[in-house]
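Give me the fold.
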Amino acid sequence: MGIWEQVGLAAVAIAVLVFFGPGVNRMLKDSRKGSRADWLGVAFPIGLVILFVLVLIMLVRH
């Protein structure tokens, strides 16, 4: 990647932080707080997917 592409990418990243940062902070402050059951309801399927992928990797290796 050329130097100008890196400079352009950095400029875009900074612009995204400048334009979307205040909105994201406000959204996080005003959002609902999840209960323990809500977080377990999210973590359980993600854990199952990770476990499934690990099993597939182990099956392919042997």
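Residues 34-62 form one domain.
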